[in-house]
Queue: 3 jobs
Job 1
Amino acid sequence: MNQDKIEQYGDDLYGALRAGHTLAPFTTREDEINIDDAYQISLRFLNRRLADGEKIVGKKIGVTSKAVQDMLGVHQPDFGYLTDAMVVLNGSDCVVEGRLIQPRAEGEIAFRLKKDLVGPGIDEAAVLEATEAVFPCFEIVDSRIDDWKIAIEDTVADNASCGVFVLGEPGVDPRDLDLPNLTIELFKNDELISTGKGEAVQGSPLTAVAWLANTLGKYDIPLKAGEVILSGSLVPLEPVGPGDKMSLTLSDVGTASVSFV
């Protein structure tokens, strides 16, 4: 895809984010679009946000669990960037209008790094050694693509369909945990709606973060000390809107909650 189109589509996504509307899937408009094109579009989208003063605070892995892959019809992981404008404080209200378009809630395990991770060659032991703490987390995914009709190239271009995220409390040293066997319980309006385990993301959240470090290494992008890394949803996506309250419990780690207004 030529550079003019890459910039146009990145600008279209930025405009959709700011105006709160959706776009036709790129894969219905561009027969030849590939993953590398999509990541270039994503970078243009990100750079427009950075030009507004947003700062990168982390990165996210998307579409890692079978439940999410089956729901979206996308069968390989992707990645996106987290900025300070995406942070929602634990236990607070998240305003939907003007910020989110078609949000869905995911329950995840988040990592905060104390050392850089630079692929290739990163394994689970390296991730564990570089991690300061893990947290219960909500990622509220959101698509700027019509009706979530996404192929992998569409969600990659759209910053891995990231909306906002909520870090729960407290942070826990992962060396004391059996990460694949941690259990998450997700509640909507105080009703238990789904459960999952850490093994849902590529067998272990450590494996998912190692995949991200190695994938980004191909683009000369490090995972940096101090960044938050979202390792992927352990449960199916749940649509949310004004009036909904979401909460989760992650065994041996803690809780997170957010209300939508």
Note: Residues 3-19 form the longest helix (17 residues).
Job 2
Amino acid sequence: MTTRYTHMRPRPEVNTSVAAPLDVKLMHMAASLMFVGLVVGAMVVGLWALVQLPAFALRGITVLGDVEHNNEVTLRANVVTKFTGNFFTADLGRVRSAFEGVPWVRLASVQREFPNRLRVTLQEHKPVAYWGSDGESRMVNSYGEVFEANAGELDDDKLPRLSGPDSQSQQVLAMYLALEPVFKELTLALESLALTDRGSWRAKLAHGAVVELGRGSVDDVMTRVQRVSKTLAQVTNKLGRKVTAMESADLRHENGYAIRVRGVSTQDVPAKH
């Protein structure tokens, strides 16, 4: 008996799936996007409703730091009405600007205090001199910045007066701080210092003497002033006068300086090397 084996080739698989039309795909994508949009919109509405709850309405502002020249009444009058919103929506930049617009306030730092308060830390100006011509109430702080405030609130009204272009207030303060101790060693008080329109420095002493310091940087001017400090007492002693008898001095000479002493004609003093 003969057995016959027949080799059968496997039939190739036939892909019976049919690609969905493009318009159907677009419809599915649009439906998905609409669903996501509805979910996001519902979340936004819910979040907005949450942040608008009365529990988050601002109940107060805690003020810390320098408050020597401001109190609760002045701060409320100058600040609270200038911003709106609650704990979440209040614009901290606007709040900071409102506080920094109050007289005497130099810088303000604002933070939120959950759930319904703001905390503000203030830094006030520390006045070291008056600024501008006589009669002006503007002042210069310890950073050399010009600011406006009520000079009648000063604890010490015997401040020196500085003047010059507003943009150079820091340089003027630096020059004053360098000169003041040198004049003090001569028992002379530096009452005012001016940077003129021509870029020259002019000092006025408490007893009325005017000192022309010339142009230049702090180092340039200090070189000329040190020249005077080493010889002024000797010169006035020889003339039988005290240093406070000096009516004026001109330091703009290359090899010395000229002084006018009360009751004595102008004296030219050569530089010592």
Note: The mean pLDDT is 84.
Job 3
Amino acid sequence: MPKIDVTKTDEVAPMEFLAGVPKERVLTQLATAAGNEVASGKLSHPESSAALCVNAFGWFLDRPERLPPLGTADPTRWQVESVTLEAEVRFPWRGGRHPWLDVLIRTVDAYIGVESKRYEPYRGRPNVGFSQTYWRDVWGPAMNGYQAQRNGLREGLVQYRHLDASQLIKHALGLRSAIVRLNEENAPQRTPRLVYLYATPRAWPTGTRRRIAEADHRAHEEEIERFAEAVAEDEVRFEALTYRTLLEQWRSSTDADVRAHARAVAKAFTP
């Protein structure tokens, strides 16, 4: 199995895709998203989080039923219906900006949004910003933890240096809105989950190969734990997972092709 399949378009620099990843379908899904990853050339940057994410999950676009259980999901109830890259989850109103998830996984009983990070947590303080629309009374009482974090960030009572908590809050509120509509339209009912999937690289990929301080890794982990505890009782279940753990789970799959894909991801990127 060849490690890398290299392709390019007329508009962007060459982009590396792992063997088995449907590159045209991936590029089509990315082109419709708000992040402008393809046209901007960001996808080809050596620090690109999107490059890792689309290669890892893009393999499952045409074979969603082969995606192993994610994180702590119950293997006996795991049945994937679809995997989508760069999926918009809309709030219960027209117009304005709505969250975009890096991956959206739909199973028979869950609606799972994945936010993927690679080098971003180690670059410095994330942006904190909410428009006034986030204070509309539409989220329901089972989202009080996320709303309390939102309020604390705006008032300066809650602070994060490595974790982009404001983005996670927006994603959780978007998932909650989407699941309400979905559960009104369909049976059986599905549970919303938000998975924070992050890499743990030890050095930057360019220049002098500067190491990432171990203190920054510890601080990031502590912030994840603090955020998880704050929203533990909410309707949108939050779970954090490292790429290393994810790939270990894939490498223990009974599917030989999934195991080979996990090895290819680990070899081509810095998980």
Note: The beta strands are 4-7, 15-18, 80-88, 100-107, 110-117, 191-198, 237-242.
